[in-house]
Amino acid sequence: MNNIQDYLNSGTVDIAPLLSLVLKKSNVELITQSDYQLSPIEKQTLDAMIKQRTDGIPFSYISGTKGFYHLDFKVTPDTLIPRPETELLIDIALDLLPKNQPCQLLDMGTGSGIIAVTLADKNPHWTVTATDYSAGALEVAKSNATTQIEFLQGSWLAPVAGQTFDLIISNPPYIEEEDSYLDDLTHEPITALTAGKDGLDDIRIIINEAPNHLTKGGYLLLEHGHDQQARIVKLLSKKFTNIQTFQDYNAKDRAVLAQVN
Ligand code: GLN
User: Which among 6, 48, 99, 190 is placed 20 to 30 Å from 154, CA to CA?
Assistant: First the structure.
């Protein structure tokens, strides 16, 4: 294989984005310049990436970035690759609180930082704190910040002892630990994906502890699995009020918002 067309014809998974990445050409340029001959170094780089991709490494770990909302985020194997459904949490948060008023926001289990960084970037008047248990993930999140954010290491609410927030958001791990869907996700950090037998171990901790860290009338916003909404509403109903449920853009139950009593 020597020119772009040969590679496009190869049927290799993600071949067009891999070509774009190596040759720094747009999709349109790949088509209009399809007889372009790759240099030996370009061929070597591309062939190494094709090998990684066919070995199952996700494209975003090869390119090192993933777009989310209006920004591009660095991602590494220390972080989950951002999912488009998590953009729902951003839309809900942006609708919830006035843009020009101060707000203390906490994003727990921030991973690559998508929730904290996107909301801080959109709302310059908000004070944003982001936590993660993983030091590696926090380093990535810090590198993605576009504004001042406080990053703290630790599990769920442990790093913010004594602090309160107007809005606490999390996209926690929520997959059942025996779920066969995990067979497709072997390159991503398992601690960012699973939470016990029913996938709710971390969500239970968050729902129990969040009321101690919310201001009066403060909100908790959580992403969850498509079949967990009713159980989460039940868990919330002890200490929360105004519980609202949301579907993602694929019409799957995906998020809950609740206000502390
Ligand atoms: N949404 C992820 C997935 O479906 C699961 C983990 C998470 O985002 N909390 O792969």
Answer: 99
